[in-house]
């Protein structure tokens, strides 16, 4: 049976919380108010009897488990670490009436019998009030770090938004209708048939609903859903989720069954490319990702790049377990994630005394780049460029030599430029048999099918002693030649035509066809470090579209060039044009 709240149907509440409230009322929750601690400013609430207390499981004495829960009835702390064990559930089953506990690190109620989070209005009101009082006290007194919530009465204004709120439908007023009509063009709008017809819409272009601060996930998923080799793999049924679930016992509900991110990706590809234009809710995928990355399982804003790496790692981990053998990600043959995104970086460390060079190779699924410095740099031709600040929003097409803006090519040149290591980073030279000063140079030995460039916009400020965001503009080309950054080109520029210290297969990476790339997706971040928003721009059939969660709009390429790029996705040019001609599925086999 379901109940209605604010006109919306809500699921039946947990029977254990109802039984607990009928026997104890709200007294145990009121007792917890004195233990609610909030880390300022505006941080997450936690449960601590003393601010410096380190909770430990009463059974295994561990304090580093994924989840620690304090029993509301007896205040005993137990861990919950599925699928290994759950001392919290064991405690609840052994003593009737002790099923309800509270997460000591998140201040969220949990039913140890149902093994799921539960909701209580009185308890949540106390937590929200504690956070609000702490935020208010922080703005008035900068030295305040946290306050206990033991004040009753009406809730203050400007409460911080939380995920457990009653649903209230939104309808635009006349002013908002005008703004929407002037600045957006829904793809399924029949009134604009003259400008956008259903036959002209790119296949698979569908919005993704925001499930609560999940724009970081939606932005990356939109890029992956339209990555040509990845799309071809899933749409050609190379990973059949029904067969995979049956193979792992998921359909029969066995205990050994485990979640598979690739299966959820397969389901998402089927839904997005079904022809349905209504926004899709990737709730199942979000739940599976939470199981893989338990430390990031919350409705708080996360980093899009961190999600990208974690998701690829989850797909790779599942495939390795199924194959029961370890394969090197650098080979690019272990799973579809690495077949598409995996490349190899080469690192050369040269002794400045004798010239001996130590070479190492590392697999990578993306390349993280530092923005070029604002002021005059050193080395090569970039030292002649002007790095004065300028208003790039007003004139984003200005020359980088004139206004000092960063360029993606400049960042790549800086990444592959030889740098002298400091005196505290001397390496042991095998030829000199002593530690010597050295030069280090990075290059790309093997290019992936899809290159992902991550721009380091979040850094730690040495002046303010806190994280900050770098808002400087970055110019990025729509077509990119990666040949100058390959190991063969770097070594040739270093040694000329007289010496070729290549490995036997080093020159394979310098193929002209595989070094040219086309931009097809840009993930942008706007706003502050702690309260920003992610949006993706997709290039489909040489037309750009803005994917802002559930909203999809067509935009001019100048809008994309002016965007604050955070992650750029480039695909090999031959794959991009085959995808544009709708021949990629038959023209290229990602399992070559």
From TrEMBL:
Broad class of the protein's primary localization: nucleus
Every UBP-type domain range: 33-140
Limits of the C2H2-type domain: 69-96
All copies of domain USP, residue ranges: 206-573
Lipoprotein among keywords: no
Gene3D superfamilies in the record: Cysteine proteinases (3.90.70.10), Zinc/RING finger domain, C3HC4 (zinc finger) (3.30.40.10)
Coiled-coil intervals: none
GO molecular function, one term: cysteine-type deubiquitinase activity
Keywords linked to the UniProt accession: Hydrolase, Metal-binding, Nucleus, Protease, Thiol protease, Transcription, Transcription regulation, Ubl conjugation pathway, Zinc, Zinc-finger
Compartments it resides in: Nucleus
Any one cellular-component term (Gene Ontology): SAGA-type complex
EC number: 3.4.19.12
Keyword set includes Transcription regulation: yes
A Gene Ontology BP annotation from the UniProt entry: proteolysis
Catalysis performed (reactions): Thiol-dependent hydrolysis of ester, thioester, amide, peptide and isopeptide bonds formed by the C-terminal Gly of ubiquitin (a 76-residue protein attached to proteins as an intracellular targeting signal)
Function recorded in the entry: Recognizes and hydrolyzes the peptide bond at the C-terminal Gly of ubiquitin. Involved in the processing of poly-ubiquitin precursors as well as that of ubiquitinated proteins.
Membership in a protein family: Belongs to the peptidase C19 family. UBP8 subfamily.
Protein name as it appears in the record: Ubiquitin carboxyl-terminal hydrolase
Organism: Herrania umbratica
Encoding gene per record: LOC110410883
